[in-house]
Amino acid sequence: MNIKRNFFKRLGTLALAGFAAVSLACSGQQMGGSNGTTSSSGTIKVAGTGSTFVKPMMDKWGSEFGKLNPNIQIDYSGTGSGAGIKGIQNRTVDFGGSDAAMSDDEMKQTTGGEIVHLPVVLGAVVLTYNLPDVKEPLKLTPELISDIYLGKIRKWNDPKLKAENANLNLPDSDITPVFRADGSGTSDIITDYLSKTVPEWKEKVGRTKNPQLPQGIGIGAKGNEGVMGQVKNTPNTIGYVELTFAKANNLPAAQIKNKAGNFVTADSSTVSKAAAAFTDKMADDLRFEITNADGPEAYPISGTVFMLVYKDQQDAVKGKALVDFLWWAINDGEKFVVDLHYAPLPDTLVQKVDAKLLSITSGGKPLRQ
Amino acid sequence: MAQSSTLGDKVYRTILFAAATSILLIVAAVFYMMVQSSIPTLQRFGIGFLWASEWNPSQELFGALPFIYGTVVSSILALLIAVPISLGIAIFLVEQAPKKIAKPIAFMIELLAAIPSVVYGLWGIFVLAPFIRTYLGPVLQDNLGFLPFFQGRLTGIGMLTGGIILAIMITPIITAVVRDVLEAVPNTQREAALALGATKWETTMIVLGNAASGIAGAVVLGLGRAVGETMAVTMVIGNSPQITASLFEPAYTIASVLAANFADATDELYLSALIEMALVLFLVTVVINGLAKLLIMSVAGRANASKHT
To answer: How far is residue A119's CA from residue A59's CA, in Å, rounded to a whole number?
Structure first.
């Protein structure tokens, strides 16, 4: 009896210790991405974190840039745009990635002074769905997307859906919308678009990284990969993801009705056209969005990915590596963009970003002339 | 026992004492840190945080109830499934199975306990969810569809899937501990019972009775893991903060909401709400452990009393 009781006491203590360790790990303010350091072997490590939307692009750019500059290692972890903003605010990383520009409030809560927004690539948020018997692309209007995510359209063969998709054999089954459970720039882009186009959406949900849908409407998943996984494995679902993720999983993307009234397929050219419509009216700090663009061929749910970098870099060596990398990415790395189903920045925008990169300094000295 | 006063013994005792107190310090530090960081929501929402059911970070509405509900219901569901199965396995291994069979089965159970939870999650998405959607769900709906638990849309992702995944994850732990407990019951008890003419079933009942406190401990250990399990549950439970009777509908647990949102909670109040949620989870665990201790003490007390009469 005694031995047994001791055994449980020990087990209990162990369990408590384990729990304590886990909670300690959870409650720490630090995040995954560690601060890049210059290691003894001479490799310069630059670390970034944030948007999962741009993760495949950053991986490709990082490895290609690494081939040209073997002494520089770019590490980017996909943790979500919110985490990218938090990471750069707290300086747990050298740069952050976000699909949404930082708000004025967020810009004030930084530990290293002024942050520069550097758009690096454009992308599309697509509505992907799992309807095994539907072969032709689904056509959606902003009103239909809003109705589906607000639970007003609950069946795939709803008359409103059929009205736009008379050619499709839509099943008599319940629609299960999949949304992002984590704070997400992808959510920000699509809710921004829906807020601009559907008054009811603006009033009930609004533009947010954390959209809250009416109770019981759908399934939440973490990250673009999570949404992808649920849509891929659950029939009759619909979810929103970055175009690359849908392409990589051979899932369809709906055509969306744009401002000009045309149904447009998301691809590099239609996204670039959306950005082109905005280049004249862009703010000087380059915080902008390109949803619901004018133009007959513009894909309306397009977004920009920003790299968030301190204007004054603490470490001149790492700062120089970072600026060189970003310069290379937007000027020479463009050829990898289309392969991954993103869209390159329009030339006028590239010039503006180049100017921003030249303005980044360390100890008052520009890092690149 | 002779008092030893050598320096070596003193150092030895001090080290052991330091090791033991470190646990207390860690618990205190964790508790302090969580309370400290959740002050903004504690001040703003007070105790009402616990039963507010609205959760909308973009409008600064934070209510913990749907998450507490999801955590409690999924864990209870897991226990309902896992406890009978684990008891069956453990009794079979100790009381019935020949050594040749018992050894490999015991090995497999320990193997199950070592599988990382993300693997369970993937298995949940790829195997369990489709199974529930196409086989188990329709059967339940056809036969028990009049119960509110089995109504609603069947996607395979939801409370039931979360509960079953948890049950599979805690079965090895409960089984392993119950097996150890049963093995600790002296063989003389079995021999005495059999000698008095008891059947195998009656003998097992006597053994179980004497091992009750240990079994209760095993169940609590399982519950502890179920309450705190994160990854696998996040992948299959649907992550939608709602309270419904239907087990087919998505739900959300405290551990899952922390895992999904902690990294990107930029807003101070949001972060504070998440940490307060962690605090709630911590307190729930403390309460569970406390209840278990009481249970074990009462069972043990009764067992001792009956021995003396």
So the answer is: 17
